[in-house]
């Protein structure tokens, strides 16, 4: 399964991403349009070049447009990017959302020392560390237990307040979301 399989331990405090300064360029910026406004993600090809390249290719091809936030857990993260089963254009398939990827190959892990903090964008994967493909998640709060075990691809630098407004999922069902919010459009650049 291509879902992020984690148990939440304790409460997570809110913090600001402190994962090192990176010169921002439009080539390494992703803009996600949500119902409440835009979100700008600074991508990190310096720590995850293969993952960033794949995300940029999928965004440029329009693959992320209208894809659902299929798993959203309060105080933890919002997961999206299942272009196979989470596509609102093709008819969202809630029973399969989170199990799909894209037509591109899975990627080898690119773990780094960049911590998972509020606003961090990481790649979702199955239990196989080398299974990330198209799905990613955005942290609502720090998640130190993810450090060094999931690939960090960037951080939200604008619009985190719009991420905070994404419809939450059902805690009893691992954060699965009924009638989910979606990424209206995703483009490379600002």
From TrEMBL:
Residues 37-186 form the PPIase cyclophilin-type domain. Residues 1-23 form the signal peptide. InterPro entries: Cyclophilin-like_dom_sf, Cyclophilin-type_PPIase_CS, Cyclophilin-type_PPIase_dom, Cyclophilin_A-like. Belongs to the cyclophilin-type PPIase family. Its EC number is 5.2.1.8. It catalyses: [protein]-peptidylproline (omega=180) = [protein]-peptidylproline (omega=0). It comes from Sinorhizobium glycinis. One of its GO terms (biological process) is protein folding. This is Peptidyl-prolyl cis-trans isomerase. SUPFAM superfamilies: Cyclophilin-like. The keyword 4Fe-4S does not apply. Keywords: Isomerase, Rotamase, Signal. PPIases accelerate the folding of proteins. It catalyzes the cis-trans isomerization of proline imidic peptide bonds in oligopeptides. GO terms for molecular function: peptidyl-prolyl cis-trans isomerase activity.
């Amino acid at each position: 399964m291509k879902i992020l399989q984690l148990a939440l331990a304790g409460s997570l405090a809110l913090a600001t991403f402190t994962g090192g300064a990176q010169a921002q360029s439009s080539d390494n910026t992703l803009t996600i349009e949500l119902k409440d406004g835009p979100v700008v993600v600074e991508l990190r090809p310096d720590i995850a070049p293969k993952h960033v390249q794949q995300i940029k290719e999928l965004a440029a091809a329009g693959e992320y447009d209208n894809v659902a936030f299929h798993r959203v857990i309060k105080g933890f993260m919002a997961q999206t990017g299942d272009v196979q089963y989470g596509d609102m254009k093709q008819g969202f398939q809630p029973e399969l959302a989170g199990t799909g990827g894209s037509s591109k190959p899975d990627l080898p892990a690119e773990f780094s020392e960049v911590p998972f903090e509020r606003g961090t964008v990481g790649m979702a994967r199955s239990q196989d560390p080398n299974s990330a493909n198209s799905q990613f998640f955005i942290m609502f709060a720090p998640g130190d237990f993810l450090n060094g075990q999931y690939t960090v691809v960037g951080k939200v630098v604008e619009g985190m307040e719009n991420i905070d407004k994404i419809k939450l999922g059902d805690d009893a069902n691992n954060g699965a979301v009924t009638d989910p919010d979606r990424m209206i459009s995703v483009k490379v650049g600002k």
